[in-house]
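Private note to self, pasted from the team thread so I don't lose it. Backbone tokens:
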């Protein structure tokens, strides 16, 4: 019981940090292109920013350890799917643009500095890490719910007849 609460808190904290990193780097990029006319071409970055905002909100709300946070596993799975979609569209953009080299060449990944390719690859990496954390969180929530359903069934069906 305490291990699932601890694992849930650690995962929620990691989800919060990863989403904040993606939102910060991606927001900085969106701010630099805000005065250009290429908004429709940048829809994938806007989508990633929205997913990061939703993930930050729900990670903050569900960060506190209480048993109700485990029953939200369908929403965790949905947010994980959104993160995987964001990861996919960002990787596709990197393949189409071809400016930053191979997708999984992590030599220039950076959060700070002036390297736009390094920052872009950092957004891709943290989007993937966030998707994995949300997926693991949904699996833990599903296991917790199924375990508690089984305990409830055993308790209600086998009562003493005395």
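Design output:
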């Amino acid at each position: 019981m305490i291990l699932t609460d601890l694992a849930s808190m650690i995962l929620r904290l990691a989800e919060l940090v990863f989403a904040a990193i993606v939102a910060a780097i991606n927001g900085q990029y969106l701010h630099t292109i805000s005065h250009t006319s290429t908004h429709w071409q940048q829809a994938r970055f806007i989508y990633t920013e929205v997913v990061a905002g939703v993930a930050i909100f729900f990670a903050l709300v569900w960060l506190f350890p209480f048993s109700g946070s485990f029953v939200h596993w369908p929403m965790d799975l949905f947010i994980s799917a959104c993160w995987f979609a964001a990861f996919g569209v960002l990787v596709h953009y990197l393949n189409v643009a071809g400016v930053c080299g191979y997708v999984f060449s992590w030599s220039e990944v950076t959060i700070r500095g002036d390297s736009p390719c390094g920052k872009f690859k950092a957004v891709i990496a943290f989007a993937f890490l966030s998707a994995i954390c949300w997926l693991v969180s949904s699996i833990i929530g599903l296991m917790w719910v199924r375990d508690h359903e089984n305990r409830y069934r055993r308790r209600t069906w086998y009562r003493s007849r005395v």
